[in-house]
Write a structure and sequence with these properties.
Helix content: 10-25%
Oligomer: single chain
Strand order of the largest sheet: 16-17-18-19-20-21-22-23-24-25-26-29-30-31-32-33
Largest sheet: 16 strands, antiparallel, barrel
Distance between the termini: 46 Å
Low-confidence stretches: 8-20
Radius of gyration: 32 Å
Length: about 750
């Protein structure tokens, strides 16, 4: 870099005295041995018969240094001849990484760094690669690794043998996570917000239990955003490490200064006089709704998102938005200023740092492309799109002047991060045991493809599913997904039947209207139904194999303030399953709506009310036992799972129709000192009815209802949820359950 700046300085001095608008008539290349004259001219990005300027010669040196082929470059332009003298970097003949036994980690590191055999050696690149290796090792928990490099130069061949030696050391584990200061929220809630986890002996798969600077910085951002979403505009989050012991354990401490809680006050919108105010009515309508509510960063971002959509309509190609906040006691006034930016266009976008990710994945997430107006709002949204993919650690941009005054060149540099995840989970409770695991990959083959494979085992069932999803398929902004699934449910001992399913689906998901998502799919399923002597006569008639081809779709409207721990807004969900070809056709509808509301501005008590309904009707025959409906156990506490509804031969056979109404509220911290405990109250009501093959089994008038208290406790071995419920109304055949608990963890 120093050499480059010196070259620029001398070129400027030389041209100040001797350069006029001259034209290149000839190139003279010297000093090169491996790199051909033609290649050097191509890399310089200048051509014969072009005018020469100081800026153009600066760019020649920059372009040549950027190739990493040269350690020294000299330019002389005289008599219309551009003379380029270079000193080539030595080439790497042999390259090895030692000290790591796990060969897969060695190959992963080699795939991430820039230096490799038969590439040019550069000391600055080596330093950058050593830093990258250090960061990769920190991500894996090797926080105190020692990395050294050595090289042997063959001057005659201008080649280098390069060796990087790594001493991994012990992994730095997180012994305890502590929150200090004016933290406001319970430790349990804050631990759920962050990604770092306390190390436990069974968490042998998770990498989040090791000290990782990247994750810690992410945790600080997550905590900051969480506090700001709950009114704490001035929050400050700091972290430090203490109690490092001989076992390489840390206490990870976050010091939080929350400040006071703020509320939205007045909003004003200022737009240029030549803009149509009606275009911004959707933004202004939200002003009156927000006044008096608790300040929330996510709600401010929603306002900016509305402005983004206006910019996307191309009505205002050169638009910029800024927000000025004015604080008065515990209230904040917001002034949103819309202005016209300079009329600049994107000449070129240079992308670097994507060693695994294909360039098209990055470009497909850019709203602003080459040739488009450089709209600041859409440019910032493009960068946010890249960050939200979860496959890049950093996304940096640099905007430079282009070949003309109204053109800009964007240099976009990304730093990739590991995109795979392995999980194992186990749990047990009053409703039974569960064991499962999964593998996720967000950037398969560097194409931005999402893969998700999972397996779940219970005493009665085995379920497996593999999902392939391609976001922005064919530049359509639609997600294309396909899945394979297999399951087996063995109830031969208790109910006299067993089902086995193998299925395949193909579908897509897209935003049809603002905040309304449509997801149609084609679903193919093969099912085998086996019965024993314990089965009812009706079940025995259904024994056999079935083939189904269905068209399914869902409509999802999500107007919650946030997906995680929603505090306001609502979500509506509707789905249908329509048979195309089926050995036993059924038609199904489902509808669900949930409303959230903060019950007090002084506490964190949240109220929720939801309604659920589902129905299934046999078009040509009775509904198969595997497709009959049951009340989801989480929607009807106080009753045993699957032990509600119509009964035949002592078996609970499910129904054709299900409805459920649920009211719940979280309570403020009523038990001082128990920061890991959440307490809530609830009221559940549900009904299940309809037996198409025997109306005498139906009891549609019986409403099941219960009320009680729910507890969620974060224990050293995982989250423990339990509830005490009292059944208020029930059918005589229903089985009640006063106490329910579940303990589970992830490894």
């Amino acid at each position: 870099m120093i050499k480059f700046l010196i070259k620029i300085f001398f070129i400027h001095c030389f041209f100040l005295s001797s350069l006029y608008a001259e034209i290149i008539k000839k190139f003279e290349i010297s000093g090169n041995k491996r790199i051909s004259d033609e290649t050097i001219i191509i890399f310089s990005e200048v051509n014969l018969n072009e005018n020469v300027s100081k800026q153009k010669l600066d760019r020649v040196i920059k372009n040549l240094y950027k190739t990493n082929f040269f350690s020294d470059i000299n330019l002389i332009f005289e008599n219309k001849i551009l003379k380029i003298n270079v000193t080539e970097n030595p080439i790497i003949d042999n390259f090895e990484i030692t000290g790591i036994k796990k060969q897969s980690l060695v190959e992963f590191i080699k795939g991430k760094i820039q230096l490799a055999e038969m590439k040019s050696f550069d000391q600055e690149i080596l330093s950058a690669d050593l830093r990258l290796i250090q960061n990769i090792l920190k991500t894996s928990g090797y926080y105190f690794s020692n990395i050294t490099s050595s090289k042997s130069l063959n001057k005659e061949l201008n080649s280098i043998d390069l060796k990087i030696d790594i001493k991994l050391g012990e992994k730095a584990k997180i012994k305890k996570i502590v929150f200090l200061g004016d933290k406001v929220f319970k430790d349990k809630r804050l631990k759920e917000v962050i990604t770092s986890e306390e190390h436990k002996f069974w968490k042998f798969v998770s990498s989040n239990v090791y000290i990782n600077e990247e994750l810690i910085n992410l945790d600080k951002r997550l905590l900051t955003n969480y506090f700001k979403d709950n009114g704490y505009f001035d929050v400050l989050v700091e972290n430090s490490f203490v109690e490092f012991d001989k076992n390489s354990n840390f206490n990870l401490i976050f010091k939080i200064t929350s400040g006071k809680k703020y509320f939205f006050n007045n909003f004003s919108l200022n737009v240029p006089s030549n803009y149509d105010l009606n275009t911004f009515k959707s933004v202004e309508k939200k002003f009156t709704k927000l006044k008096g509510e608790v300040y929330s960063l996510s709600k401010v971002n929603l306002l900016l998102k509305d402005i983004d959509k206006i910019a996307l309509t191309k009505q205002y190609e050169f638009i910029n938005a800024s927000i000025v906040e004015k604080i008065d006691k515990d209230k904040i006034d917001f002034e949103i200023n819309i202005s016209e930016s300079e009329k600049k266009y994107v000449e070129k976008i240079n992308i670097s740092g994507n060693y695994s990710t294909l360039e098209e994945v990055i470009r497909n997430n850019l709203i602003v492309d080459e040739g488009d107006p450089l709209n600041e709002i859409l440019f910032n949204r493009s960068i946010n799109n890249l960050k939200s993919l979860g496959i890049f650690k950093k996304v940096n941009t640099d905007i430079q002047d282009g070949s003309e005054d109204n053109l800009k060149i964007i240099d976009l540099e990304v730093e990739e991060r590991p995109s795979g995840e392995i999980t194992l989970q186990a749990g047990f409770g009053t409703s039974g045991e569960i064991l499962g695991g999964g593998i996720k990959e967000k950037n398969f083959l560097g194409q931005g493809i999402n893969l998700d494979a999972n397996l779940e085992l219970t005493p009665e069932t085995i379920k497996g599913r593999f999902i392939y999803a391609k976001p922005n398929f064919g530049n359509s902004e639609n997600t294309l997904f396909t899945s394979l699934k297999s399951s087996s449910t063995d109830l031969l001992t208790d109910s006299g039947y067993k089902t086995s399913e193998l299925g395949f689906s193909l579908g897509t998901k897209f935003e049809q209207f603002q905040n309304i998502f449509l997801s149609p799919e084609i679903d193919f399923l093969v099912e085998d139904l086996e019965t024993s002597s314990k089965a009812s006569e009706t079940l025995k008639k259904q024994e056999g194999s079935y083939t189904d081809l269905y068209f399914n779709y869902t409509i999802d409207q999500d107007l919650r303030d946030k997906r995680y721990r929603s505090e306001s807004g609502y979500q509506t969900f509707f789905s249908q399953e329509v048979p195309i070809i089926s050995d036993n056709s059924e038609f199904s509808n489902a509808f669900e709506i949930a409303k959230y509301k903060k019950l007090s501005t002084k506490s964190n008590s949240i109220g929720k009310i939801s309604f659920y309904a589902k129905t299934i009707t046999g078009l040509s025959d009775d509904v198969r036992i595997s497709k009959r409906l049951n009340v989801p156990s989480y929607k009807l506490r106080g009753f045993e799972k699957g032990k509600v509804g119509p009964v035949e031969n002592n078996d609970y056979i499910g129904g054709n129709h299900v409805t459920a109404l649920n009211l719940s509220a979280t309570l403020p911290n009523i038990v001082e000192g128990l920061d890991n405990l959440d307490v809530g109250v609830f009221f559940d009501a549900a009904n299940i009815w309809g037996v198409d093959y025997n109306s005498s089994l139906d009891d549609k008038s019986t409403i099941r209802s219960s009320t009680g208290v729910a507890f969620n406790l974060l224990t050293p071995i995982g989250p423990l949820s339990f509830s005490f419920a009292n059944a208020l109304s029930k059918a005589s055949s229903d089985k009640t359950e006063t106490f329910r608990f579940r303990l589970g963890t992830q490894f």
